[in-house]
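The protein record passed on for reference:
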Amino acid sequence: MKIKDIPKDGRPRERFLKLGPEALSDAELFAILLRTGTKGENVIDMSNRLINEYGLDKLFDCSLKELQEIKGIGPSKAMQILTMNEILKRIKQAEKPVKKISCAEDVFKLFQDRLKDKNEEHFYVLMLNNQNKIIAEQEVSKGILDASIIHPREVFKPAIKNSASKIILVHNHPSGDPSPSREDLEITEKLTEAGNQIGIKILDHVIIGKEKYYSNKEESH
């Protein structure tokens, strides 16, 4: 059955306008997000199928490539789903803003929601002023971390550009276990030495796991 064949008072958009979003089911809300179905499957049926097979949480955790491997989801729908997921993450972040770093837990709170479910490693530089207030952040690497390819120039260039006096290194472990690898420790040592030479101190290297974190500074004391 096509959407146009469903009585108007049973269509998601019309029900939204009449009753508000809280009256709609998960599938109806998802149908509004996806907008269209495919040949032989209207958007409501597609939404029900996707939620029943994968669950909303799993769908939102998929990568762009993984989403496109699911029947009925092409590049456009995959981007719509990931856009909604990113908006939700940013809303959560806005609800608990961290403007000043006083400990590694602050860094964990700042990055946990956006990094805990990533399928590959993301390496960030968090830039601070003399009062440990956040000036800026920048992602400098994505993929498997390797001490030989994490060049100090790429790490300290944004810090110099933003006149940061201190930086914190941050990356995630897709496994969920934040315990440092040999490569992690080598990267920390290499970049700490480079920072000492140019006068930008590395305060910490925080590794983000699913529910906990590792702090190089805290572990070294």
Q: What stands out?
A: The chain has a mean pLDDT of 90. Residues 75-95 form the longest helix (21 residues). The chain has two domains: 3-93, 98-219.
